[in-house]
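Design request, C-alpha cells follow.
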C-alpha cells in the first residue's frame, strides 16, 4: 500500500482478498509506526533521497516493512511470516520498483496528487511482485 504524508492509503492490494479488512487495519497501524520512525530519525532523513525503514514490526502471522520517499510518501508491505525466502535486499528492491512505478503515476498530467491510484501499470507492477513472493 502507499500513502501520502496525510496518512490515508491511496492504494491497498491483498492476496488472498478474504483478509482485506484485516490488511486495511494493519496498514493504518503501520502508517503510524512509519511516522514514529521518521520523527525518531529527524534530520538524518532529510539527507537521504529515499529511506528503507526495514521491518516495522512482526506479528504472529505477518512481517510489516516500511519505506518512505523524499516527498514523505509512505509505502508499507505486509508479508506472510512463513515466507522465509525473502531477504532484506529483495524487500528493498521491491520498494524501489513500487517507488519508480509511483513516480510514473505522478508524472501523468491527468493524475491529481492525493487521489486514489487507478493505474493498470501500477497494478501490473504490484501483481508481478505478488506473484514473485507467493
Amino acid at each position: 500500500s502507499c500513502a501520502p504524508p496525510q496518512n490515508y492509503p491511496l492504494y491497498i492490494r491483498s492476496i488472498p482478498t478474504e483478509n482485506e479488512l484485516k490488511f486495511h487495519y494493519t496498514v493504518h497501524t503501520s502508517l503510524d509506526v512509519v511516522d514514529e520512525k521518521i520523527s525518531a530519525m529527524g534530520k538524518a532523513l532529510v539527507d537521504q533521497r529515499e529511506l528503507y525503514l526495514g521491518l516495522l514490526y512482526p506479528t504472529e502471522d505477518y512481517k510489516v516493512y516500511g519505506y518512505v520517499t523524499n516527498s514523505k510518501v509512505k509505502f508499507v508491505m505486509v508479508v506472510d511470516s512463513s515466507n522465509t525466502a525473502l531477504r532484506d535486499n529483495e524487500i528493498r528492491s521491491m520498494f524501489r520498483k513500487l517507488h519508480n512505478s509511483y513516480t510514473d503515476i505522478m508524472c501523468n498530467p491527468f493524475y491529481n496528487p492525493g487521489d486514489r491510484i487507478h493505474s493498470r501499470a501500477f497494478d501490473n507492477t504490484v501483481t508481478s511482485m505478488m506473484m514473485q513472493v507467493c
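Comment from the thread starter after seeing the answer: thanks! The longest strand covers residues 50-58.
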